[in-house]
Task: structure prediction
Amino acid sequence: MKKIQFDSALVGTEWHDDVVLSIEQGRIVAIDDSDSMPVDERVPAVALPGMVNVHSHAFQRAFAGLSEFHTAERDSFWTWRSLMFDFLLRFTPGEIYEVAKQLYVEMLNAGYTWVGEFHYVHNDRDGRPYPRMSELADAIRRAAADAGIGLCLLPTLYQRGGFKNEGLTAGQKRFAMDAESFVELVGRCREYIGQQNDYQVGVAIHSLRAVAAEVGNDVLAVLKTGKSFPIHMHVAEQLAEVKACQEVEGKRSVEFLFERYAVDENWCLIHATHLNDWELQAIAKSQAVVGLCPTTEANLGDGIFRMPEFCEAGGRFAIGGDSHMGVDLREELRLIEYAQRLSRRERVVLGPRSQSSGRFLYEQAARGGAAALGIGAGVISVGERADLTLIDQNSSAIDGAQHDRLLDRLVFCNPGGNPIAGTMVGGKLRMKGLEGG
Ligand SMILES: [Zn+2]
Result:
């Protein structure tokens, strides 16, 4: 057991100063005041619940910034996507490993403790399966282990080009996998649970358009174990997708999702940008987590999630880097609130009146993220994982602020520099050089 003292920590929902966390086998086993307690280590930082990056396509990190030019009369998500598919055709397993590892180190430096890797690139460049079907999933898994970030690997099923069972284009051939092979792939990924530290496996259905609902349901039924696991899906990111779903299935995307799948608290719906009232209430009621990816959604011109209504309805949310235009939890959180301020011409829109905006956004995203990856974390509490995001109180962004004001400055104040002092993942401390120390 190791006793580590922090300047301050958000324990449960309360701030504790000079607090000592006792950590054993990656979990918090006791929380005490520092008085008269000998400690093994003193860390000059403020401990926050570890922030989860709930939605990542690691290879897209290499593509960030390479599509900011005109390719059509009206550029969109769809024109971006065809450039991205072309770009992906070049990657070898070694390159995917290198990009993912660098990205995961960047995530740790940015304060993220876990990543949900929505992994849909399975095949070789010519579209044929690798001799070892888990070649690329293994590359992702090793990259996370070597970087030291927690990984929830989400092998992703992707089978068709649209709601009318259109075939896959040349750019999508690396994603194709039949249901049987997919079940086998998930099984292989699951073999490392318990062997690799800080590792978890969920399942992703790419989207309603890329997988027929009957196939998705069959696969989920076959993969069922005694224990629940995270289920992730992209949904309602683009209006064109909602419209196509309406045309073919006679229902909007999220309506159709709830009609055909048993969505519950194990689900994480990525984006969910375009919702009517019924859909918004259905998601909130199911307690599925909405995985918001604000910098990517802004970059791709997706639209603005109905966050005030969703929070009002008791919905849960998390943040994801998605295409990795930003690897910055502060930017993701800030943009959630700023999108509302800009569109409503109002300030401090989200959260209850009793809480500041930064506190609300950080605390809820940390909880939602841990829930969406099925890990016991997201709050600093006895029995939970020792996953922490550590803040340098002397950095220029924080400038000595404490408690809720620290969170507000963390989220909203960006004078340059990085106030993230380090992270702890499963009890393993990883400090960076302190900006203010
Ligand atoms: Zn995505």
Notes: The pocket of zinc ion is lined by residues 55, 57, 118, 234, 270, 322 (CB under 6 Å).
